[in-house]
Known about the structure:
The complex is a heterodimer.
Chain A: H1 12-17, E1 21-25, E2 28-33, H2 37-46, E3 48-52, E4 57-62, H3 66-73, E5 85-92, E6 98-108, E7 111-116, H4 121-132, E8 137-140, E9 145-151, H5 155-160, E10 175-180, E11 183-188, E12 197-203, H6 207-217, E13 223-225, H7 228-237, H8 272-281, E14 285-292, E15 303-305, E16 311-321, E17 326-334, E18 343-348, E19 351-358
Parallel strand pairs in A: 3-13
Antiparallel strand pairs in A: 1-2, 3-9, 4-7, 4-8, 5-6, 6-7, 9-12, 10-11, 11-12, 14-17, 14-19, 15-16, 15-18, 16-17, 18-19
Helix pairs in contact in A: 2-7
Chain B: E1 8-9, E2 14-18, E3 24-28, H1 30-36, E4 39-43, E5 50-51, E6 56-62, E7 66-70, E8 75-80, H2 83-86, H3 90-93, E9 102-106, H4 118-131
Antiparallel strand pairs in B: 1-2, 2-3, 3-9, 4-6, 5-8, 6-7, 8-9
Amino acid sequence: MAKEGLKRTSLYETHLKHGAKMVPFAGWEMPVQYCGILEEHKAVRTAAGLFDVSHMGEIWLEGERAAEAVQKLVTNDATGLQDNRVMYSPMCYPDGGVVDDILVYRAADRRYLLVVNAGNRDKDLAWIKEQVGDLVDVTDRSAETALLALQGPRAEDILQKLTTLPLAGMRYYCFAAGKVNGTDALVSRTGYTGEDGFEIFVAWEKAAELWEALLEAGAGAGLQPAGLGARDTLRFEACLPLYGQELSEQITPLEAGLESFVKLDKPDFIGREALAGQHRQGPPRRLVGFEMLDRGIPRTGYPLRDENGRQIGFVTSGTFAPTLQKNLGLGLVETGYARRGTIIVVEVRKKMLRARVIPTPFYKRPK
Amino acid sequence: MKVPENLNYSKEHEWAEQREGGVIRVGVTDYAQDAMGDVVFVELPETGQSFAAGESFGSLESVKAVSDCYMPVGGTVTAVNEALLDAPELVNKDPYGEGWLIEVEPSDEQELENLLSAEEYKQYLTTLKDEGGD
């Protein structure tokens, strides 16, 4: 019953065994939920959740000029990026539109790992080869690399049971190579939920074993398998952008509020000129967070209007935020409507519902 | 999937229950609530509003999506389940009981005969599974 043309991770059978509901996502058949999105969301905020994110792409840049290639591709500045450190960055086109938003891992002076969105993998690979293929060896190791995300306040305790890597000393956005559950792994303190947590890269065929070992190690700590549904509500509350919604080829990182990841003082990178121009003039649109005042849930693509009914933008993401128990949205609006407290109107299936611009992120984990 | 014997069903996964005084109580089936996942928002009509059979009378929203609710029979709304406004999760917890949506005074009782019996609805659900969709 494989759905036509959809790829499966090595955990497909494991997901079915754990009662997952599978859906198509970015060309993959992925678990959207196990016991329910709300319960999984809560588990990650209060204990821990385990996600299969093996659909993400892993592209390696290797060679003497690897650092130079990275600097050309991404808008953030990797100059100070040390070995075993991770950096988030948009990767742009010359016009400032976003090819993808990625994580850059510096494994060594001459070796960098780029972790890219599943739906962009082919496009990214072609783009990277075209732009820096003459500088470095570009290798797509996505098909042999599985990725598990263990997220939540109990993640460290749980993972520490399976590894001798000293996790307490590993800071956010750092990583290390070592054994986890007896198998070679790359462990990084990163995630996409707004919680503390780890992402664990292992060989494709080792993932199912590690998945079960982690669930067992976390059984007493409230660890639950969690699907893409909870991943989306978690990242939404933390206001982490989702490519295709908050970022796209038509939305620049400056419009999306990612100016701290665009280093215009870096000598050169793809998109610099366009982004510098937009920075000088001020971006015409801004990403804002808003809270519904009237009853209704904003959804991706719904029009945003001013109080006179003129369209001023659109919703990029929106849902009922489980931790905050509110109907919230992210939207791209004309800059004049981006100020905190501004009343905007969301068109929800032909009804005009009022909302108020509020600060982001909606959720910040307690320190 | 629970499919109580005493109810009638539509292919849109609504159930209809004949109650005292000729009123029809309407809700969504166990299959529907399971397919939607956690219901977090419910939009219901006002009492006194009239709808034809098959017309949308409201919507249920899960974390991820919006689903319209369709009238299994035409008629006038005589009651709505106000409890759902504060507790939409009742639709998941008890779709045939506390999670009911509206009550309707049918405009034409004959329309009930167009609905599926429990047996026919169960049969219908198996055809959906064969297609692998929902």
